[in-house]
Amino acid sequence: MIVVDVEASGVDYAVHSIVSVGGVDFSNPTRQLYEECRIWDGARIDDGALAVNGFTKEQILDPNKQTEGELVQKFIPWAMEADDRTLAGQNVSFDRDFLKAAAVRAKHTDYPFAYRTIDTHTLAWMHMVKRGLTPPIDQQKKRSALDLDAVLVYCGIPEEPQPHNALTGAKSHAEVISRLLYDKKLLPEFEQFAIPWLS
After folding, report:
1. Domain 2-198 carries which CATH code?
2. In this predicted model, what pLDDT tens digit does every residue of 107-132 receive, in sequence order?
3. What residues form DSSP beta bridges with 143?
4. What pTM did the predictor assign?
5. What pLDDT is attached to residue 109?
6. How far apart are CA 147 and CA 140, in angstroms?
7. Are the C-beta atoms of 80 and 108 separated by less than 8 Å?
8. Is the dihedral of CA 15, 17, 22, 23 positive or negative?
């Protein structure tokens, strides 16, 4: 499984660009990847997205950074070394769709990843229900309130530091997956934090 986190210049893969990607090979978690890039020419920039990921406009427009296409052409070969290339993460369809759009823009015709993914939101929801708990609902929007921070806290891990970093995000997703599926800690960064349902 390739645990991935994409940071982008907005939320629509058709008009926004990747600005960074982090990855962890779940079966070999010392295999990690972090890459940053400039946005593709003409990509839109959402100030709200930059507030989340901490990049400035100058950083994502920096002509000295690699292109989005070059970034995805590094990510794909790295991911292809994994025994299981299923993409995983929190709301991972976002990451999958951005990676695919970047590959298409780069004319990378051998996009290797399947549509099927493993979503930590779904894993956490199921885990809570199986323990007899009621997953939180956003009362205004009438939808799940299990964002990454809520899932981290449920798994005994502090909320992700702000601003978001793609590699920190990928590591957080990987740790959550290990705890939810196997009741095991995965990465040394999280070793000090107990798994709540095992206490």
Report:
1. 3.30.420.10
2. 876 789 999 999 999 999 999 999 99
3. 138
4. 0.94
5. 67
6. 15
7. no
8. positive
